Structure formats: C-alpha cells, structure tokens
Amino acid sequence: MVPPGTFEEYRRWLAKFVESLNHALEGIPEDRVRYHVCWGSWPGPHVSDVPLRDIVDLILKVKAGAYVIESANPRHEHEWQVWKNVKLPDGKVLIPGVISHATNVVEHPELIAERTLRFATCSDART
Fold first, then answer.
1. Contacts of 66 by beta carbon, 8 Å cutoff, 6+ apart
2. Tell me, what's the pLDDT at 127?
3. pTM of the model
4. Where does the pLDDT of residue 106 fall: very low under 50, low under 70, confident under 90, or very high at 90 and above?
5. Cα gap 11→8, rounded to integer Å
6. Cα separation of 87 and 19, whole Å?
7. How far apart are CA 10 and CA 16, in angstroms?
8. Which of 47, 66, 68, 125 is the most exposed place for a label (fewest CB within 10 A)?
C-alpha cells in the first residue's frame, strides 16, 4: 500500500489493519498498550506519506491506552496542529515524539521544549 492505489483503498486497508490489530489485542488491558505511528526513517523524500489529519480517526480506533506519534520528522512536524481539532478518547494519552531519529544533528533543548509546548497548548490533547 505504499504508495496506495487510491486514498480510498488505503483507508480500507488501514481500517482492516486496525480491525486485525484490535482482534490481536483482545484480552490485553488498553492501559498496557502503546501504539506507535511512524512514517519511517528510510532515506527518501517521503512525498507519499499520508497526512495525519487524513487517518487520525482510524488511528484512534486502535484499542491502546496511548498513541505515540512521530512529531519531529520535518515532513510531519507541523501536524501537531491536528490535535487542536481532534479530541482524544476519554482515558487515552498522546505521546508525541519530539526528538527526531531521522537526523544526525543533536536537536537543541529549546527546540525540544518548543515541540513539547505545542502539544501542551492543545487542550484536547491533554489528559
């Protein structure tokens, strides 16, 4: 599905994946599950990455206590804004990835603080 045939096909594939994952998670308490969303660290332009806003509804259907979202990747760093309009389900936690694994540059602590504050200011992202 990379790149997807069509966006609708991709969403159907992702919905089926979420359904299968939730089936595999049956019996495991949600507060013990962390679901990591990553756009990969392969060396390429990432121009076919699906925007978070287009799949966040499906991601939040995963029966997990926390959602770990890559948020320092230059292609997706702006997507913290999604959480201004998307409410986390009750009892769920958002764990933004604010340090990039896709660079050999050591990010400045002030940049990490800025990234963290962006999420903290999204009232619906807080639990």
1. 33, 34, 35, 92, 93, 94, 95
2. 45
3. 0.88
4. very high
5. 5
6. 21
7. 10
8. 47
